[in-house]
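The data are quoted verbatim for reference:
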Amino acid sequence: MAMDKDVELTTRAGEVDEIAMQEAIEDERVKTHQPGGALERYINLVSAVNFSFILQCSWEAAAVTFQFSLSNGGPASIVYGSIFAGIGTTLVATSLAELASMDPTVGAQYRWSAMFAPKWNRFFGLMQGWITVFGWICSCTSNPALISNVVVGLAIFNNPNYVPERWHVTLIMWAITLFPFFANFWFRKLLNPLEAVGAICHVVFFIVSIVTLVTLAERSTVEYVFHTLTHDVSGWQNPAVAWGLGLLTVTYPLSGFDGVLHMSDEVKKCRIRVPRSMIASVVLNAVMQFAYMITVLFTIGDVDLVSGDPLPIIQVYYQATKSKPATNLFVVMLAIIIFVSFFNVFASVSRLLWAFSRDNGLPFSPFFARVHPTLKMPLNALILVGSCLAILALINIGSSTAFNAFISLPALALYMSYFFPIFFIFWRRMSRSHPTPVPWGPFHLGKAGPFVNIGAMCYIIYILIWMPFPGFLPVDGINMNYAGPIVGAIIIGAVVDWCISGRKRFQVPVARHRPDFG
């Protein structure tokens, strides 16, 4: 019966290329043999590129988080860090794009770790799955955290008598989360117009912001922009440490490029389109982030006034425009793009959680692995993600530094999730004793592969060193960076899960059938 369906699909796919034909056959196998159901492919090349392009929203995220670099590193961290982060993230994205071309799958990192680990494949696959899922849930939380920070900042700007309470931010985050949660029920119908509008706004707002600042604002000196290294504000006196801590502003916005990977089961010709969209989005966002931050530094105005504001970018625009309505408009522009990005992040993490459940990576996996027969989306996984976001938003009530955690947590966890698949494929490509060759896809780095992999791993290790550091000294319970301990707790929890039931429950994912690209 299955063979008859394969023949029928092959005949129907006669006018499309071999990749699309193979995908159609494989999707039919999944529908036939996968108890939870399968997703349908509807994302074309333009939508795939726009999905990644908008999901990162790098210059907007850098605009509302550059207060971290003002205290540590200053302009030197922002300027040279943007170049460093752009090159490093491109190496990471290129390494993962090669893996995506081999096996484009929703599970991505944990599937590749299970596939290429030299031994203990199931263990590394499960650990990787927990880290990746946790990293993406935290990344999903960062969007409402950024938007709520904008809302509170504008409220203070327009009403100086307003005193924000911590629970205000929690309520704002909950309200913001409701929109993408319900919108994902009809994400297929919303995707194309949403991505098109988001991409246009992402570029148009970028151009308008730069033109406005360059035209109206007073100029900073070249000495300030390119030769100022701040290391006497946060308590960290060592310039190298201050520069490293300041990298959070420029490295965090460029993470998350793997979001389109977790939509792979819904992308047509994903072996070609997913790698292209990943690399294109990183390069474009890195260039835009660098250009925008250079512009901000040259037009920053009174540095003390800017650094003293709860949301520094507000004072940058206000000093340039001398108008509160204009400042409100420009800052709201930032929030709009981050909000559109939130829809993509929400969809991506729900698919990832669904895939991990499909491979029995989570307790109660069969429940979360179901695909709603009418909506054609993982409804139960979506509800779990929304619940996790609602719980994580409560951190604001107990901690005044929760915003720092919402930013550093996803960056730390996601970069950890990038490291292991790259390390394992590097190990495999350098191995001379493995009985089978690496099943390369249409995007293959060839002889440059080992060098790209090494560069990517060195960049990740360097970034991971600084992510858990507290931003200020002396360290106390209020300004402590809890990102490291929380990630450590997740890893310990994953090990406990492995020992209790994970080693029996988790199934090593099997790579889908791959056409011969010769």
Notes: Residues 1-16, 23-33, 512-518 have pLDDT under 50 and may be disordered. The domain at 48-505 is CATH 1.20.1740.10 (Amino acid/polyamine transporter I). The longest helix spans residues 121-158. The chain has 23 helices and no strands.
